[in-house]
Structure formats: C-alpha cells, structure tokens
Amino acid sequence: MKVNKKGLLAGGAIAIGATLVLAGCAGGDTETDDSDATAEGGSLTVWVDSERVDALQGAADAYSEETGITVELVGKDNNTIKDDFIQQVPTGEGPDITMGAHDWLGELSTNGVVAPLELGDSADGYLPVAINAATYDGTVYMLPYAVENIAVLRNADIVPEAVGSFDEMIAAGEDAGLDQPFVVEQGAEGNPYHLYPFQTAFGAPVFGSDENGYNADDLQLGNDGGQEFAAWLSTEGKNGTGNFNTDIDGDIAKQSFLDGDSAFWLTGPWNVGSAIDAGINVAIDPIPSPTSDAAQPFAGVKGFFLSSESENKVAANDFLVNYLGSEDVQLALFEAGNILPALTAAAETASSDPIIEGFATVGQDAVPMPAIPAMGSVWQYWGIAEASIINGEDPSATWTKLAEDVQSAIDG
Amino acid sequence: MTTTTDEGVDGAKRASGAPPKKPTKRQRQAAGIADAASGGLGLMLVKIVSLGLVDAIALYALFVLVVNDEWLIAAIVAVVAIFVNWVYFSRKRLPAKYLTPGVIFLVIFQIFVLIYTSYVGFTNYGTGHNGSKEQAVGALMSAALDRVPDSPTYPVAVVDRLGELSLVVTGPNGGVFIGGEERPLEPASGAQMENGVAVGVDGYTTLSFQEIVARTDEITELAVPFSDDPNEGALRTPDGRSAYQYTSSLEYDEAAGTMTNLDTGVVYTDIGTGAFTSDAGDELLPGWQITVGFDNYLKALTDTRLSGPLAYVTTWTFAFAAISVASTFFLGLFLAIVFNDMRMRGRKLYRTVLILPYAVPSFLSALVWAGMMNESFGFINQVLLGGASVPWLTDPVMAKVSVLLVNLWLGFPYMFLVCTGALQSIPDEVVEAATVDGARPWGIFRLIKLPLLLVTVAPLLIASFAFNFNNFNIIYMLTNGGPRDTGAPIPVGYTDILITMVYKVAFTGQTRDYGLASAYSILIFIVVAVISIIAFRRTKALEELN
Fold first, then answer.
1. Which residue(s) pair with A101 in the sheet?
2. Could you tell me if B108 lies within 8 Å of chain A, comparing CB atoms?
3. Model pTM?
4. What SUPFAM superfamilies does the record tag this protein with (chain B) (predicted)?
5. Angstroms from B392 CA to nearest CA on chain A
6. How many CB atoms neighbour CB A212 within 10 A?
7. Would the CB atoms of B394 and A405 count as touching at under 8 Å?
8. A296 and A200 in contact (C-beta within 8 Å)?
9. Hey, what domains does chain A have and what are their CATH numbers?
C-alpha cells in the first residue's frame, strides 16, 4: 500500500513534466505567431547571427521608437539558420526577416521561402558586386549589408614589400629562408573557394554569365583554361613545389602564419583579428596571379531576406529598404563585424581602415559566388578533384572527369 | 522510487540485528513519506495539488492550441489529461498508475518520431518541395513580377474610402492620380500636397503608417492597373511609401491547374508530381509536398547511382560494427582479467587511467585523433614515427584501419568496466571448486568464466553493435567518410557507414531530400531491429546455462 502511493507521487511528478513538455511545444507556436500583434501596431521577428545581435539591437530599437513597430531580434546559430528558415517558413512559424549569405539564394528561392525586394532608386547606392549578388534570375531578393572576399595576408616583418606574381611571392618567401613561404587551407577534400582566384587567373570561371546572372547551362569549368589551371596545380602540388598541400587545413595554415613559418596566407577578413592579436605586422595584398591575368576571388555578400510567408511585408520592406539600407545602420553593422559595408557611402567611410581598404581593393576584382542551385552539383566534386590533383593524380584526366561529373549531375 | 530502496536497506539492517542508531536525515525523510503514505490526508493533498498542476498546464496548452487552430493536438492533449486524471483519482488501477508516465514518454519520444519519420519517407519533402501548393503558387506569382524597365519610382499615399483602399500617386511631372483594385489610374482632383508630393485627396482618409502596417494583407494584394491596357502592368507598393510599375510573366489558372509563361507561351500543368511541369518536362520550382508512396524506397534500392555505393557501404558498416564490438570487448575483457588479479599492485590507479578515454567526449577525441593522424604534420608521423609519412587517413585501407583503431581506443574502457563488474560478480567458490577439480586457468576461463560472463554481457554487446552500426560521431569527425571514392557518382567515401552516407546523400550540398533520408532511416531501423531480435533470441540460450 505504501509503495502504491509513492508510485503515485512520482507518477504525478512525471505527468507534470510530460504536460510541461507538451505545453512547451504549444507555447512555441504563440511566440512566433504574430497575427495577434499585427492588429495592435505590428511587430517584426528578425533572425540574426548570434554574434551580430548587439550590433543590430540599436538599429532595431531606434526603428521601434520611430514607427511604433516592435522589432524582435532572435539570435540564431549561423550554421543552422538557413535550414531552420527553409523548414519553418512554410509552417508559418518562421521569422519575417532573416540574416543570411547571398549564395543561399538559389536554395531559398527554389524552396519558395523568400519574397522579392524592391530596392527602388536606392539600388544605385550599393556596390555593384553587392547588387549583382543579391539578384537571382533577374529579381532582387536580398538587402545587402556587407561584402566579403579573401586576400593575401603578408607578414610585413618578413617580406616588407608587396609582390607582383605568384612566383615572385614564393621567391620572396624563400629568400627570407622559409620552407613554406605561402599557406592556404585545403584539407583532405580540398578547398575550391580558396583556390578559385588561381583558377580564374587561367580564365576558367565555373559558369558563364549573361544579363540575368550566371547561366547554369553554360558550364565553363572544364574549358582550356581549366586544363591549364589543373596542370599548374599539379606542378605546385605534392610531386612538385609543394606550395599546395592537402594536409594543411585551416588550423595548420593559421598556426604556420602566426608562428612566422609562412610569410603569406591566403585567407579572409575573419582571420585578420587573430593575426593582429598574435603581434604580426599584417599587410593586405592582392592575390598574386600565376598568369598575366588578375586572380579574382569569390565575393560573398551578406544581407537580409524577407520571408514569403511574412504577415508584415509592408513593415518588413520599410525596415529593410528604408532603414537597414541607411548609411548609419550599415556603418554600425560594419563596426560589429569588421567587414566591408555593401552601401557605397558606408564602404568609403569604412575604407579609412587600411585592412578594410586592402580587402576592398582586392574585392574590386572579385566575382560573386554563384547562387544558382546548379552550384551545389559543382561543390561536391570540385574540391575532391583538386585535392587529388595536388596529391599527384593525372591533372588532365582528373579535370576532364570533374567537368563530366558536374555536367551529368546538373543534367540529373 | 529511491526511497523504496532506502527502506529495503534499512529493513535489511534491522533484520540483521544491527544495534538501533539515531536515524539519519534520509531515514527521517523516508519515515516521513511513509507516514504520509499511510496517513492518507497529506498524500491526498499532494495528489490533488500535483494533478491540479497537471490540469492547469493542460488547460493552458489547450487554450493556446485552440487559438492556433491545432485541433488534432488539442484533442490528444485533452484525452491524455482526462485519462491521467481518471487513472490517478481512481482507487484501483494500480498497474496503470505505474505505467502511464512511461507510456506517455514512450509515445512522445519514440513512437511519434518513428511514425513521423516513416510518414516523411513516403513524401517528396526536400529542396523544391517544401510547403503547400498554395504557398508554391504564391511564391511563383510574386517571383514572376518584373519591374518595367526604366520605370520611375512613384511616391504614393494609401487612402481609404468606405473600407476600400486606393493609391494616390504623384507622377514624375507632378500630376496626381488615383486608382484602386481593378480601377485604373485617373487624374485626381482636390489633392493635398506636401513638398511636391500628394499626401491625400478630398473625400478620402489618408492612412497613417501604423494603419498601413495593420492592413498589410490588403496593401500587399493591392495592384492598381496602370491603364486600361493590361500589358502596361500594375502599380504595387511594397512599403506603403513608394510604388513601382510591375508586369507579371506568369498567369495562374486555378480551374485548369496550369501556369502559363506569358513571355514564352509555355504552359506548365499540375500533373501530380508536386510541381507545375511543361510538356517538355521542365518543372517550375518551388513545387509542393505530395505523398509519393514507395518511390523513395524504390529509388534507394534500385537507382544505380545509389544502390552501388549502398551495397559496399552496407558491407563496411557490418564489418565496422562487428569488428569494433569484438575488438573492444576482447581488449576490455583481457584488461579486466589482468587488473582483477589480486596480486597486481596499484590496480586502482591503473583502472582510473584506463577509464580516461571513456571520460572524454568521443567527438572531441575523434577530432584530436584526426589531427594526430595528419600525414605531414600529425604527432604520430612526426614524433612517434620520426617523420615517416604513413597515410593514416588518406589511403582507403589505412583509413579503415585508423577508424577501427580509434574506435578501439574510444570503446575498450566501456567493455573494461562492464567485464570488471561481471567478473567480480562470479563467486570465488566456483573458481575454487574448479581448481580443486584440477582445472587449469585457461580451462577455467573458457569453460566457466566466459559463459557466466556472457550471460551478463551479451545484451550489452548487442546494444554496442547497434550503437556502432550508427556511430556517426567517429566517422564524421575522424575521416568524414573519406578518402572519397572519386569513381562514385555521389559524395561517398571508403570509410562511410550507412548513417554518414545517408547524411551526405540527404543533407550535404544544396539539394536536400528529406523524404529519401527518412526512407533510408527506416531501412536502417529495420536492419538494426532484425539483428537485435535475432541476437536477443540467441542470448536466451545462454541464460539457460544458469
């Protein structure tokens, strides 16, 4: 009899727990459902990369004060924000606006979760690469706020002057007595993003482009320039000079540069902070080209997307285009993230910083990373092919197979 | 529940005739609960308060769910709440009082997940088939709106008359026009101007920004024909302040279920595949979710691009799981026997050290091992092997060996713990009797200790097999399935096991296929379940040894 009643006690506790769980699930519905709030004056839910919540908070509060529309910022993990957005928008539980990167655009648009944005006359105020990247299939879907690209970080204590070409760079490092003058992250599966500048220097973009942007039907990857690039990569790989090595991943490349074992590091603005913290005298140089043509890196553009199921499209459009697109807000976001603002006026102000100016100069040559869904078929083969060329596979055959695999994956 | 055991211990002490001591805190607590239990009134109060809480929460949940039109879930919550009340307010139904909480958890965390996964396995849920048809149509239509090239920005004011919205538009030359849904723009008279822009018209109320926001739905729908000529498109205002002239390149015919591209004249029809499809087979994306029956299963098993890799990945998965279980078990058992020997000094210290790999989170260890096994820079090649270049993770065969080695390192402490416990539970008398009968150590181990041990350990070995069968962490963190099989048409590598292959097929790249992934999950579930059932049946034979 005793046991019976104690079981009941425990049972009661568990039942409470279970119901709490149920209630918790149910509660989730109300938080993001803003149909009630709309009637009262409007509210916007904005998903933001957790690290940028503080940067945007001031802008959000100021907008609320000005218009009476509540802007609720929700910090999200940058790795899951895209998948969460795609999955939650159709259920009506997603946010009104989400922060993201332009290369998500193909996926977001194919899933029908983003609404077109009309930038109106303000479109002329943005860097051309930003507008270019925000446009998908002829329609603008993203309010750009920052432009990001890779460049060469030079240890100015080891090599005081900028170098001209790739070979000069290696020679300058070797003259300074370094075994590995130049590092770039690769890893076992390769890293095409970081190799792309060299590939473009040989005249081999991934896709050809027309007035609507990249054209998925025009795969340029396997052209003659691509073959030349593959041959060059092979001579710089394991059986050649060893300047490229798949054993060097992001951490090893970073450590090598921070320890002064390498004078040149091809990387993005996200690593500049740690180099400066390590006491390195960092200079930002254009990417030395192995040919006479410019080495063009990919540009990644960050921005804000409007949900296609938002019930507050008018307020959201106003907040994005007329408010987040203003110079003050773009500069505030720049100060939080330290990457080049997408608004030309803000970008000019930000370029008073030599590091930012360095990246901006390199960025003038940058091309937007293709956002078309066909790009997904490229990534899965691209790095692996480059890695095997670096590791001594036959460059010509591997590159030909890469182009064939990508083409058949695109064709389905 | 713990109080019951405490009482058990307590009772045992008393029975063994231990001298009565001053009761400890726990004993007093136990006595208090026992009193309350037999007392009735106190317990009744606790019962009423607990159930009251449960009911309050259930009511709140019901309220929220009904407000959100989630009728099905609301009904389930109501039924469960009534059932819980019925069970615990009844004087009988003792088994139900024990079982109810467990069953509720089982349903929420196991059965629901399984049913939902199999449901997704029968749909085309994935990239391009993400929402409902209505949403797909909405997204297609809004994407099809094109701003007329070189058309100006028109400052607008949104005005209302008798609940019907109109736009007051200021033209580039300063002219003021008014128009509404299906009412083309016409010159407006009596405009109120501010800084050269019309802000209102006599006879209409101008909406404030708050009012505009409150009527978002109407305003996003509002398309004011530019003129009587439909080819000139319509004015729409995305933000209530400026309007732009748009034409649409798609026309939706709901009755016929077709989308027509007005530029090319191509007709896209809903042919039941979850997307508007042209006669030439081109699909307009986004499409929508539909049920596809067994298509995903058929695709997983018969699509040559998927079935080839599926076969050898399955083989390796079985090998990986079996070898991992065997190697960790035998190493753990060996060490347990060694450290169970009374003659060994410092056994406790050794045992503590041996448990360490188990104490470090496995995905962290796997990452550290991946670093140590780096061909050019890793600790093993550089320091231990003096600069050798052993391709630990980059050669297909070596990578498999490395995976097994690291998994052995991660897994043996568990087996060591389990075996130590099981060995210590074998009575010394059994061994002594065997020794007296003239058995040798190997014989004692093989014929007496091992069978007794297996009775305890066999279910754990089966669990361990099932765990390793889906050991995502080690593969993903150590090799990420690599080195990649460059010959395979999907991104699969030589050390991929089923679960990592499913992950790669379904979730990497920009094309997700949740339906296919769910179908794979169900297939894996069936395989693991069948193996477990067979193995558990066999272990019953072992139990009969006792």
1. A302
2. yes
3. 0.77
4. MalF N-terminal region-like, MetI-like
5. 11
6. 11
7. no
8. yes
9. 2-148+300-368 (3.40.190.10), 151-298+370-411 (3.40.190.10)
